[in-house]
Amino acid sequence: MPLSLIVAFWSVSILFVSIPGADWAYSISAGLQHRRIIPAVVGLLCGHLGATIIVAAGVGALIANVPIAMTLLTLFGALYLIWLGIGLLRQPAMLSSGNGPDTQSAARWALKGFYISGLNPKVFLLFFAIMPQFTLPNGAWTITLQILVLGAIHVANCASVYFLVGYASRILLRTRPYAAKLVSYLSGGLMILIALILLMEQCLKRLWL
Length: 209
Hints:
By secondary structure, the chain is mainly alpha-helical. The protein has helices at 3-18, 22-31, 37-56, 59-64, 67-90, 106-118, 121-130, 143-173, 177-208.
């Protein structure tokens, strides 16, 4: 693959990742907990990696061509975001001192992160609509290999941004407990808002069909 093509995709990917969304909200939420940033972000990255593998294997194209599959994926992902958002609103995350017991295990934080990014239809749309434009059908590398390389670049971008968001939120809010509580509320509200937008998009699609 030409270096210029890789750099162009990197620019699009980093722009996509830098736009606040459900992944940002979850990274911030993890930042308010002691030693939960790493497992949370690793879970998010595994979701993006899983989407890369699905698309590279050709399964993603099959899902995209089956409207009911995308609808169910969107519905399930939106409901899961609403459930997480309500949980944050009911019990806002607070900065822990590091001495108290953790309410959730690292594995559970990672699993939630995987669900959030892995069930996000926007992630699949990135691969379906944008990534093919940066592949060469007649290139020296196979399409599968090209998608895997581009996917790895995207995952690296996600790692740099999400870790930065998580640790920055913890550092900036360490001495501001009330601000931390407010950010937790905003994160929960953002998750619910994103879910409602996804559901509204599906409703509009149904009306136009």
